[in-house]
Amino acid sequence: MARITAGVGCSHVPAIGVAMDTHITDQPYWQPVFKGFEKSREWMKENTPDVIFLVYNDHCTAFDASCIPTFALGCAAEFQPADEGWGPRPVPVVKNHQKLASHIAQSLILDEFDLTIMNEMDVDHGLTVPLSVMFGEHGPDDEWPSLVIPLAVNVVQYPAPTGNRCFNLGKAVRKAIESFDEDLNVMIFGTGGMSHQLQYKRAGLINPEWDKAFLDRLTADPVGLSKTPHVEYLREAGSEGVEMVMWHVMRGALNDEVKEVHRHYHVPASNTAVGHIILENV
Amino acid sequence: MDKDYEDIPGTFVFDADRSREGYHLNQFCISLGKQKGRDAYTADPEAHLAKFPMTEEQKQAVRDQDWNRMLELGGNIYYTAKLAAYHGINFQNLAGLMTGMGVEAYRDMMLHGGRPIEGNRYKKEWGEEE
Predict the structure, then answer these.
(1) pLDDT tens across A160-194, in order?
(2) Residue B104 exposure: Cα atoms within 13 Å on the Cβ side
(3) B50-69 confidence digits (pLDDT tens)
(4) What range does the domain containing B128 cover?
(5) Is residue B7 part of a domain?
(6) Which residue of chain A is at minimal alpha-carbon distance from B117?
(7) How far apart are CA B31 and CA A150, in angstroms?
(8) Which of A109, A146, A232, B51 has a CA 20 to 30 Å removed from the CA of A48?
(9) Which residues on A lie below 8 Å from B91 (Cβ)?
(10) Contacts across the A-B interface (CB distance below 8 Å)
């Protein structure tokens, strides 16, 4: 039987990918960002999953304004790193566990989550940056150490799905994975955040107290945390901070009791507070 | 519909109303995410703009590279950032321009922990009407 062993929360700032791709991670600006992922990379080597269920948002790459699915599950055999305006990232093609993905799609829809199924999709930095920070540098001719099932969540056009909806989706993802008849170690990633605002006159907003409370409550009060209203994210964590709803899918898929094995927080990476946590099922 | 987020200062929440107003502007911007669109815009800017039925105000904001005006007219940052990238402006420098602080002062603010939340939650704290 497939099982979920751990969850990872992780920012997906595009500039972090650029720093890795241009080999400037040792510069004083970037060194503290990457220092916090050293332990994570060791942990990933020791616990390499067969499959990562990766929750992220597309940044108008696979979906422009003409089509905005709230939840889109990647069911293709593989996903190419996308050209986001400055050429594709030099990272490996992302390969799916296609049979598990289609099993999850079927299970979720019967559980009343009305997914969009993607049989063709390019993936942008929202998906590849978390893989890069957790696995380290891999060139375009390498392979990622794990298969990846992408779930793209709309957080660009308001409203994103509620935290509660995301948390319950996580529970349904777990149910789907645990009913798959193959012995697989699956991890779930929730990506995005933390506090940041990219636009207009309040751009640059960072709220470390709020971010820290969010990280604390992932273990102390995950259900209460998932009820956070959108306006609180927008006001307290910045207009783009609302993408942290995606972390609730990850948390909802884990046990009620989890063990925090690692945490990293740093300001800034470009416009953003970088947050990262590893939670193991106990 | 009650918009409980309209009292946040210096912020446009990209909701369905803004998405509707900005649709063609945003689709123009996203066309520059691909080489074909960038080449077409370089070859003949007005001809490429004319493919998208924007308002004249929206077109003028594009010509002027007036980043805040684009947001006021329904643009979304993830889209306008493609136009900025076309002009060689990255996300952080774009933010520096939108805040009115300038690129250097904005970068310095971020290095010192970013814009604090205190005093930046409500329009009334900015002396603006809610």
Answers:
(1) 999 999 999 999 999 999 999 999 999 999 999 99
(2) 0
(3) 999 999 999 999 999 999 99
(4) 90-130
(5) no
(6) A207
(7) 24
(8) A109
(9) 14-15, 198, 270-271
(10) 150
